[in-house]
Write a structure and sequence with these properties.
single chain; alpha/beta; seven-stranded mixed sheet; disordered C terminus
Length: 268
């Protein structure tokens, strides 16, 4: 799926477009993928940057090392990684990770505390709680975000938001229709309770092109040629630039808890 599915292909195109807009390709510039899974992002960037990946899953890291033997990976929690692993990193990727952790405030602030001044963090998360379905539950999501909720996670920290936008907007109508169907039936659209199913190759290619093509609008927004990005979408994307030192990791305030799981527990 990670190598062929339109969602992964389109997202990697968007990430690489925005990354190269801010950081000129250079094999001496370190890019760290936090929550790298089996290594698809770092593998796609290894010809342009010095790359490294970190993930808590032993299986994911074992597969990543098998697929990309020339790239260094760390298995474990971010806070436990040795300082030399990511020392001097210019760019961090945090793609579809925050929704998987109980305390997103703590996770992001811990990452930002490791960053040097001037470094960037590109992060993506699933958006719009109306899309919540078995897909999210099977994948272990705690929440889907609205823009104002995501902005709260870094509010008050010494960072500059270089970009904040919804994305996966062009394909939002069919995604919304599929989620509505799965919400009102006992069947998932894809495999193992998720919406991940590989379409026929011609369809998959078209979907990847439509999704990945959003990179132009997002790049124009990042570079100031557009005032805003997309007003809606199935996901959110943000790029933060660290402008201050001595960031202290912080926990999420209790009154800001908008987790889907928490609401389900309260009403169950």
């Amino acid at each position: 799926m990670e190598e062929r599915h339109w969602w992964f292909l389109g997202k990697r195109q968007i990430v690489k477009t925005l990354l190269t807009s801010l950081l000129t390709p250079n094999l001496r510039s370190l890019v760290v993928d936090v929550g790298c899974g089996p290594g698809g992002n770092v593998g796609a960037l290894a010809d342009s940057y010095d790359v490294a990946g970190i993930d808590i899953s032993p299986n994911a890291i074992a597969l990543a090392r098998q697929r990309y033997p020339g790239i260094r990976f760390w298995q474990g929690e971010l806070a436990e990684a040795p300082p030399e692993f990511d020392a001097g990193a210019s760019f961090y990727l945090l793609t579809d990770v925050l929704e998987h952790v109980p305390d997103d405030f703590l996770f992001l602030s811990t990452l930002l505390a490791r960053c040097k001044v001037g470094a960037h963090v590109l992060l993506t998360v699933p958006a719009n709680d109306a899309l919540w379905s078995s897909h999210d539950e099977v994948l272990g999501h705690y929440r889907r975000y609205e823009r104002n909720q995501l902005e709260l996670v870094w509010q008050g920290l010494p960072v500059i938001p270089r970009l904040i936008s919804y994305y996966n907007s062009r394909l939002y109508p069919p995604i919304r229709a599929i989620r509505w169907l799965t919400q009102h039936s006992s069947k998932s659209f894809g495999k193992r309770g998720t919406d991940l199913r590989l379409p026929p190759e011609p369809v998959n290619r078209i979907l990847a092109s439509l999704f990945g093509g959003e990179s132009k609008v997002l790049k124009d927004c990042l570079e100031g040629r557009r005032p805003v990005g997309y007003d809606y979408g199935a996901s959110l994307i943000a790029i933060l630039q660290v402008e201050g030192q001595s960031i202290t990791p912080r926990r999420r305030p209790e009154q800001m808890n908008f987790d889907h799981r928490a609401r389900g527990a309260a009403t169950g």
